[in-house]
Specification:
The chain is an all-alpha fold. Helices cover about 75% and strands about 0% of the residues.
Length: about 150
């Protein structure tokens, strides 16, 4: 549960920061300082999580010498896959909302955006996005909670 909260916290703050920075870039609006504050909160959160995770004993079983293989074969791949699924499920939605786009907007500059546009050329994007984000989001949550 702790890992899930950390993943959600960091992913949402990163998406909100980048979305607002994209919205207010070179506008000179009074709210253009908000992305910097959100990024500072995220960085303070990361700095606070490091000592907490060092103190937290919930995952010590994975780091014992006789069960170190669990860390490399179970914990790490499961954590990475769960993180990638959750990030895919929620990052773009929060980013697009904060940047002022519709929630299912897909750009055309990043490599992943071009790949998604190719894959979904004949499928309505809103439907594809909702289905894949829901399925992969639930899969990511289940992988993280299983740890």
């Amino acid at each position: 549960m702790i890992l899930l909260a950390i993943i959600l916290f960091l992913t949402i703050l990163e998406a909100v920061h980048e979305g607002l920075a994209s919205r207010y870039r070179n506008t000179g609006k009074p709210a253009s300082w908000v992305p910097g504050v959100i990024e500072a909160i995220k960085l303070v959160g990361i700095a606070a999580m490091v000592p907490f995770l060092l103190w937290y004993t919930g995952y010590d079983e994975y780091l014992k010498p006789h069960s170190m293989w669990k860390f490399w074969q179970v914990f790490l791949p499961q954590y990475i896959l769960g993180f990638v699924f959750i990030r895919y499920a929620i990052f773009d939605i929060f980013y697009n909302i904060c940047a002022g786009n519709r929630w299912s907007y897909i750009g055309n500059t990043k490599l992943i955006d071009r790949l998604i546009r190719k894959i979904t050329a004949k499928v309505p994007w809103g439907y594809w996005s909702l289905v894949t984000r829901s399925v992969l989001g639930l899969a990511g949550i289940s992988l993280i909670l299983k740890i």
